[in-house]
TrEMBL record:
It comes from Salinihabitans flavidus. This is Putrescine aminotransferase. It comes from the Bacteria. It holds the Pfam family Aminotran_3. The lineage of its organism: Bacteria, Pseudomonadati, Pseudomonadota, Alphaproteobacteria, Rhodobacterales. Its cofactor is pyridoxal 5'-phosphate. InterPro entries: Aminotrans_3, Aminotrans_3_PPA_site, PyrdxlP-dep_Trfase, PyrdxlP-dep_Trfase_major, PyrdxlP-dep_Trfase_small.
Amino acid sequence: MDAITNHMPTAELQALDAAHHMHPFTAQKDLAEKGARIITRANGVWLTDSEGNEMLDGMAGLWCVNIGYGRSELADAAARQMRELPYYNTFFQTSHVPAIALSAKLAELAPGDLNHVFFAGSGSEANDTNIRMVRHYWAMKGKPEKSIIISRKNAYHGSTMGAASLGGMVPMHEQGGLPIPDIHHIPQPNWWAEGGDISPEDFGFARAKELEKAIHELGEERVAAFIAEPVQGAGGVIVPPETYWPEIQRICDQYSILLIADEVICGFGRTGNWFGSQTMNIRPHIMTIAKGLSSGYAPIGGSIVCDEVANVIGQGEFNHGYTYSGHPVAASVALENLRILEEENVIGHVRDVAGPHLKEKWEALADHPLVGEAKICGMMASIALTPDKATRAAFAADAGTVGFICRERCFANNVVMRHVGDRMIISPPLVISTDEIDQLVERARRSLDECLEEVT
Ligand code: PLP
């Protein structure tokens, strides 16, 4: 077979891809019919595809390329580490400098007494760690019956058996015999879709109360933990009403429920602070991290754990771990990424420059005839598409998914946005300039105009 390179014609690459490469969250038959979009290189916030198109990446890959593409410092860090020590494990009382340095750095950055890190290769693996860790914690405390983890409908926490069970997306549970036992889901704080005619504030409070209701129904002595993203990402960038998190925090405190904040998207600057928990003013016992930890340059995730849980678990052996827990190359890349985030004040850029600029431009989209609410928190944002703003109606199921049509128009206009049902979402690299934000929103508006023409 000839060498397969960037220089091959797109159609040939697409044919090979469809024949041999099974993609996540993709219908393989669509690949065979239409072919994949093949990305060949990237720089800053810009992607180039195999046809030479330049696209503005409004999603930072999959919410992860926080420092933008093309930072050779990370490539250098990886190469240095590969030469020095490409691999060693952290099992059986062994360690190495990159894992030591990264865990110490994360303990410094994380709020409160979140001082201990259990590494994984991804966010899914980290959430699987969390399931076992919180159940083991309560067992060590003499309460093995405290094993139920409460999560939320429409949540996404990953794709492994455990993480997908924590997730609350029905189509995921329909495949593979999920959820695993002792996972319970409560409704999400999505006022636009589910708030009826009560105010967002009352709705946020009522949805938080669902946690208390579930604890009463399941029995306080059975509930181990509650897991949620500070701002729900893949569920459609659902920014909760301000009344939501304070009440959740109160309930977790009152009933001694461990709080797990899934920071896989919200972490590392996305919401304008190092962690979404700081933006939402909550005090988790465990934070799940991945994605922005290495800006996606190397696969790495983990759980940042508070003193109490780490100390209890540490009394015995935790029979859990991954070959790549604390992988030295990934850890070195993550350290270099954190150095850039810190020294270049990327989070300050989100808070003071890019975030406010995007907020102003994004919220102005609410005047578009197709757009109901426009929501934003830092550098993650969404718009709800609707045929009737006043009633917050959804499009009829047989209208073809309008979100899908809009996303296709976005691709045609060389801007990458995602849709979740009829919600359009963005999460651009944090280093995006104000000029690039203007281009992103201008292309989004053009795509909305074209979508409107197509659906009316
Ligand atoms: N948690 C959240 C909130 C996520 O958005 C994701 C991925 O999108 C995950 C966990 C799973 O992370 P990974 O894909 O690295 O396994």
